[in-house]
């Protein structure tokens, strides 16, 4: 926890300076310790109702989903948003859930009114199709971290996002 806290705190401060949300993955304790804006929970993490007790009513909580049943179940608990995917084969993860594709994203869009953030293999070349299929935004790792120019890669992604999502 101490190492994670030492890494998260400067990122939290930078996010505040840039006036962007800071969401911690998996760890409610770490999110609370650095006063993050919220936490993102995977299927094997703390259940939503317990996370809400820990985080309080004003912090964001998102849940990863990978199939229609998980989307329905997560939506019933009323998180603030859903992650959905992998849309394509992830570049950062070898052990991942089955790829759902653009059609899988389009199909779950009708199952929830919550914002849906697509994840998994999203690139600047396919992000437009992902947004058109109903995603409210995207979560990207490899396409940014492995880019020769990270600033340019982020700019290229943001150029394809609706202003409210960016």
What do these coordinates show?
Strand 2, helix 3 and strand 3 form a beta-alpha-beta unit. With 166 residues, the protein is α/β, with parallel strands linked by helices. A 6-stranded parallel beta sheet has the order 1-2-3-4-5-6. The mean pLDDT is 92.
What's the arrangement of secondary structure elements?
Blueprint: H1 2-18, E1 23-25, H2 28-33, E2 38-41, H3 48-55, E3 60-65, H4 68-76, E4 81-84, H5 101-109, E5 116-119, H6 127-132, E6 137-139, H7 142-145, H8 150-159
Descriptive labels:
single chain, 166 residues, alpha/beta, six-stranded parallel beta sheet
Please sum up the structure shown.
With 166 residues, the chain is of the alpha/beta class.
């Amino acid at each position: 926890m101490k190492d994670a806290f030492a890494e998260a705190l400067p990122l939290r401060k930078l996010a505040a300076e840039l006036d962007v949300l800071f969401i911690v993955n998996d760890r409610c304790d770490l999110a609370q310790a650095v006063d993050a804006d919220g936490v993102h929970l995977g299927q094997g993490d703390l259940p939503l109702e317990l996370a809400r007790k820990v985080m309080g009513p004003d912090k964001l909580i998102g849940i990863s989903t990978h199939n229609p049943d998980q989307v329905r179940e997560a939506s019933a608990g009323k998180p603030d948003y859903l992650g959905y995917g992998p849309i394509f084969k992830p570049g950062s993860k070898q052990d991942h859930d089955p790829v759902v594709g653009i059609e899988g994203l389009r199909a779950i869009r009708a199952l929830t009114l919550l914002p849906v953030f697509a994840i998994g293999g999203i690139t600047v070349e396919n992000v437009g199709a992902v947004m058109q299929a109903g995603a409210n935004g995207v979560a990207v790792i490899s396409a940014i971290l492995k880019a020769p120019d990270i600033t340019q890669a982020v700019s290229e992604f943001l150029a394809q996002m609706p202003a409210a999502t960016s």
